[in-house]
Amino acid sequence: xxxxxxxxxxxxxLYEEKHVTNPIIQVxxxxxxxxxxxxxxxxTVQCYLVREENGWTMIDTGLQYxxxxxxxxxxxxxxxxxxxxxxxxxxxxxxxxxxxxAGHFQxxxxxxxxxxxxxIEIATFEWQADGxxxxxxxxxxxxxxxxxxxxxxxxERQMQVLAxxxxxxxxxxxxxxxxxxxxxxxxxxxxxxxxxxxxxILQRADGLAFTGDLVLMKITPNIAxxxxxxRNPLGDYLASLDKVExxxxxxxxxxxRAIIQTWTARIAELRAHHAARLNECFNAxxxxxxxxxxxxxxxxxxxxxxxxxxxxxTLSHLEYLVAKGRMTRQEKRLAPDQEVVLYTxxxxxx
Length: 350
Fold this sequence. Notes:
The protein has helices at 66-78, 96-99, 102-109, 117-126, 132-143, 148-163, 233-245, 263-284, 290-297, 304-323, and strands spanning 3-8, 11-16, 24-28, 31-37, 44-52, 55-59, 86-90, 113-116, 171-174, 179-182, 185-191, 200-204, 208-212, 251-254, 286-288, 327-335, 338-345. By secondary structure, it is of the alpha+beta class. Helix 5 packs antiparallel against helix 6 (148-163). Residues 1-19 have low confidence and may be disordered.
């Protein structure tokens, strides 16, 4: 197994490069799953190519990363696809591993790039090439208790990720409840916020669906409270699970891990997971910063990526409890230019 070092100023992020045994798998008639490497702990994102009478549809893209480009080159060669045969690119949500190569492939093929209308607004806000958004994130992490040196490493990592989603595509909107033709089938567009504010799944009449990162096997989708986005993403996510539970999805093609054929059972497991995580956060919140609570809930964090995602996940659970009236949030000024946010659970004895 090769060791891959990702270098940015004053930091070094270490990952093992995963060898993918079957990077191109036909998962249904005319539908091919492509395992695209990413420089994050999950190692790969699952993207899809759907063969049509006069071309192909791509669903999700990976990001600007040399092994990702090689994976796509291999897929195009294996499936005998000329770039101009790509008819459309559909992005389930604008997280970097799903969205990052959309602009590249649009420039290469001329294909339109589709996202939910709301997610287009978010992508424009999130991935400003000037890095202004990343400055906001650094301040946000410090407000929630992250030490300055760790916040600096998170900032550097976010700037590296920003480079991995350039160039930006020209985006065309999709709308909740509408249908879009993919291959020879019509797919209904279903808005499922939580993991991302503008996340969608695409379902066809026989129950097969492209489900992005809404429901995953073995792991739980990261539910993150980002500044400037949804105030209560965990509440949105749990509502999305309620929304899709009865959709009769028989075969879900996800963005990571195994194809899902036990849809409702997996949703029940995800609900139970978040109920347990909420209890952990509640019990840990005693006039603490989110970072202090995060370290108690996630005691074995190994990388900057794990740290930033764990802190954002902790915040989503804390803000859910605040919204439910089970927790208080208090801003405390430590110095003229330094403020932190403290969380305290509302216990029976309080």
